[in-house]
Design goal:
Blueprint lengths: L1 H16 L3 H5 L3 H18 L1 H9 L3 H7 L2 H4 L2 H16 L10 H15 L5 E2 L2 E2 L1 H30 L1
Antiparallel strand pairs: 1-2
Helix pairs in contact: 1-7, 3-7, 4-5, 4-9, 7-8, 8-9
C-alpha cells in the first residue's frame, strides 16, 4: 500500500526537479523530451538560472537586469503543465473532475507575479522575477482549489 502511495507522487516530484522527468517515469518519452527541451530553451534564453542566483543572493536589481522577460513568460505555463501532466498520467483513475484547476490557476498567478515583479513592492522591497512569482504560486493554488470545490458542488446539484 505504501509503495503505491509513494508512486502516486513520484512523477510529480521528479517533474518539480525538471519538467519532463515525470513523463519519462510514466513511460511517455516523447512528451518528456519535448518538455525537457522546451524547459532548457526557455531557461537558457531567459537567463533564468542567473536570475535565480542573483535573487537568492538578494541582488534583485541584477536579477531584473539579466532576465529576458519575453522568454521567461513561457516558463510558468510550461512548468505547471509538466507537473499536472506527470501527476495525471500516473493517477488517471483516481483523479476527479477539475483536478487541473489548482495548477492552471497557479500558472496564471505566477505569470501575473512575473509581470509585476519589477514594480510590485512588499514591505517596501521589490522582490524581482523569481521571488514574487514563487509567492504568487500560493494564491493560485488556493483560488484553484476553491474553484474546484465550487464546480464540484455545482456538478452534484445538477
Amino acid at each position: 500500500m505504501e509503495k503505491k502511495k509513494r508512486k502516486k507522487y513520484e512523477a510529480l516530484l521528479w517533474s518539480i526537479a525538471l519538467p519532463g522527468f515525470g513523463q519519462f517515469l510514466n513511460k511517455k518519452p516523447f512528451k518528456g523530451i519535448i518538455l525537457m527541451l522546451s524547459e532548457v530553451i526557455v531557461n537558457v534564453m531567459s537567463n533564468f538560472n542567473l536570475a535565480i542566483i542573483h535573487s537568492f543572493n538578494w541582488n534583485i536589481q541584477e536579477s531584473i537586469e539579466v532576465t529576458n522577460f519575453q522568454w521567461l513568460m513561457f516558463y510558468p505555463c510550461l512548468y505547471m503543465f509538466g507537473l499536472w501532466d506527470a501527476y495525471r498520467d500516473e493517477n488517471r483513475d483516481s483523479l476527479g473532475p477539475y483536478s487541473y484547476l489548482p495548477l492552471a490557476c497557479s500558472a496564471y498567478t505566477v505569470t501575473i507575479g512575473l509581470i509585476y515583479s519589477t514594480s510590485f513592492k512588499l514591505f517596501g522591497v521589490i522582490l524581482g522575477p523569481v521571488i514574487l512569482p514563487i509567492l504568487a504560486l500560493i494564491p493560485g493554488l488556493v483560488i484553484g482549489n476553491i474553484l474546484r470545490v465550487i464546480f464540484l458542488k455545482r456538478q452534484m446539484n445538477f
